[in-house]
Design a protein that fits this description.
Elements lengths: L2 H16 L1 E5 L2 E8 L6 E2 L2 E2 L6 E5 L11 E4 L8 E10 L4 E8 L2
Antiparallel strand pairs: 1-2, 1-6, 2-5, 3-4, 5-8, 6-7, 7-8
Length: about 100
């Protein structure tokens, strides 16, 4: 078994156990959702920006593009709800981070 196949098996296990269910344009995908609070500083002012993101496997990122709708199936207090993809950011490690924006 090649190294790439071993990593693929590992990713499958991790996403099956820890993945959050989402819909990308109605297509079910498992991903790792996070909505951290970021506090970048502009001079002495904290901006308090929130940049939610979803990490998915490259195989699940096929056809994903900006402005597509993402529905995160989590409780609202955990960040669940409707989002729009701002930009995909491939990591070069078999994963793609989708930077999201909350839908109005």
């Amino acid at each position: 078994m090649s190294f790439r196949e071993l990593v693929d098996d590992l990713d499958n296990t991790v996403f099956d156990v820890l993945g959050d269910p989402v819909l990308i344009e109605g297509r079910p995908v498992l991903g790792m959702f996070s909505a951290p609070w970021l506090q970048p500083k502009l001079g002495r002012i904290n901006t308090g920006l929130r940049e939610p993101h979803l990490v998915i496997r490259v195989a699940d990122a096929e056809g994903v593009s900006e402005r597509q709708e993402v529905v995160v199936d989590l409780p609202v207090h955990d960040g669940g709800g409707n989002y729009v993809i701002v930009r995909p950011e491939p990591g070069g490690d078999g994963l793609v981070t989708l930077v999201l924006r909350k839908s109005p």
